[in-house]
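FAQ
Q: What does a multi-component entry look like?
A: The components come first, one per line:
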Amino acid sequence: MMKILVTVKEVAEVEDDFEIDGLGIDEAYLEYDLNEWDDYAVEEAVQIAEAGDDVEVVSVTIGPERSEETIRMALAKGADRAIRVWDDAFESVDLLDVAAKTRLLAAVVEKEDPDLVLTGVQAADDGFGATGVSVADEVGFEWAAVVNELDLDADGGVANVRRELEGGVEELTEVDLPAVLTIQTGINEPRYASLRGIRQAQRKEIAPMSLDDLGFDASALDSPIALTGMSEPESESDATLFEGDAEETAAQLAEVLREKGVGAQ
Amino acid sequence: MTVLAIADHRRGSLRDVSYELVSAGRQLADATGGDLHVAVISGNVEEFGEKLNLTGVDTVHTVENGEEFNHDVYAGAVEALYDEVDPTVLLMPNSVNGLDYAPAVANALDLPLVSDAVDFSYDGGLTAIREMYGSKVETTIEVDAERVAVTIRGGEWPAVADTGDAEISAFDYSPDGDLGSRVLGFEEVAGGDVDITDADVLVSVGRGIEEEENLELVEELADALGATLSSSRPIVDAGWLPPNRQVGQSGKVVTPDIYLAVGISGAVQHVAGMKGADTIIAINTDPNAPIFDIADYGIVGDLFEVVPELIEQFE
Ligand SMILES: Cc1cc2nc3c(=O)[nH]c(=O)nc-3n(C[C@H](O)[C@H](O)[C@H](O)COP(=O)(O)OP(=O)(O)OC[C@H]3O[C@@H](n4cnc5c(N)ncnc54)[C@H](O)[C@@H]3O)c2cc1C
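Then the predicted structure of the entire assembly, as tokens:
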């Protein structure tokens, strides 16, 4: 029996034109979806489960009730059950920092006692890129960040991974289990949930967990890190923008390209 | 206040961000008239130590231990150095290796962590600027703690190049017990038939293309312009183009005469691979897309309308 815990996050995607309202983006311009990196982490876990026997995949999220829709996607793709950590106390928090997320997720890891934890490299919204490795340290697991290939040797007690470094170089590393791996996009091809999967997901359990259930009070969310401002970056653009319809703009661009010798041969 | 910055290196050379960490660290140290310590762990520390003897650095700590990065060694060594140097700010790079040890170190030392900072100041506490939502907004983060760990984004601070008169001192550290992770080797990926770094003109396609079938359109454009086709990461992740076509931090760094970005937003990791192009042109429906910040020419428009017209211009 092997257990894989996958952390997933519902992230907000921002429309092209948006407005900032105080310390956040106006809700009217946000659309919620499963974090891109987590989609790959879920797929990786499900593929391991499908290839082995007796592998349980549990997905965990920290998020409001709305995020049940997102976590159902993980269930529809093949996770066996889910946990959703939330509490009224979260409503008044502008930014959940890495340390707070670490406390909460580490408590879940300790309850579930998995052999492997998969997270995304980063969340597309706040982009800290730190939670997985921080949790690993907190629970005393080994870890590897930015993994784009995973070969699990559960009997040998190791995971052989490739870490994607900069500049087209990969590092081949052997990591002792239990471990936390942060999963990079491209490691696999995430499936679309099938109709059958979506139906089955309706019957799967999403267990709610409050701060109290995890053995905390509201102070677990306290953080010395505060979000105190949000603004649209000043455009540094000094680009020449061509005006007109498609034909006109294309003609102007073509002229610039020809001047630079493109298409001359 | 004392600042401790950890250098980044790989396969025999210091990475650019190491020199940027020195100016970032000096900026903070200056705010309070303090010292800047820089540490380099593993590799040829003697050579690295000399290279890191740069203007503004007070002490370079060299930690001899194996050739290459190993996060267990780094985490242990940085924690030991932290105890020794007692810094107010611990600065690390937001590189792929930084991602692999900085969060563990911050957690072990019970330090609040601000990652991927693009600017900061210090006035009794740290105030940092970092982006969210893929560069769509900038946020201000204030840290109400005496000590803090920060990782910095590459390319945001100037690199320090001038030799200084730092004290170089060897720091003794060896991990206790067996390491839980072992680096077995490296592999260069993304070889193959086409070398996009050789091209004078690149037509580069991003997620705006929506479907694999639509790639034909940009292939046709590349043909019409006598250009080579490259792409952003999602196109390669989806398997629509091979890895040797990917431009960016984890792909190729290209410096063509002309880079035509079609349906690419201009995320930092993409820009890291193409900002050196002579002329950058963007076609994108979103006037706020960060790609326009670095573009020389642009069309705010739908690629499915503009590209066919552009092809026609060259037929
Ligand atoms: C560790 C790490 C390494 C990475 N390495 C790389 C790397 O090497 N290279 C890389 O590219 N990325 C890399 N990334 C990913 C990067 O963060 C971005 O996710 C990626 O670059 C986005 O690609 P994109 O611009 O094609 O897609 P998006 O960001 O989704 O942008 C699509 C753009 O298309 C525009 N668009 C949509 N429809 C149309 C239309 N009809 N006409 C015109 N425009 C349209 C949209 O306005 C948008 O700006 C890395 C990320 C991480 C975490």
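Q: Is there any commentary attached?
A: Sometimes. For this entry: Chain B touches chain A through 100 residues (CB under 8 Å).
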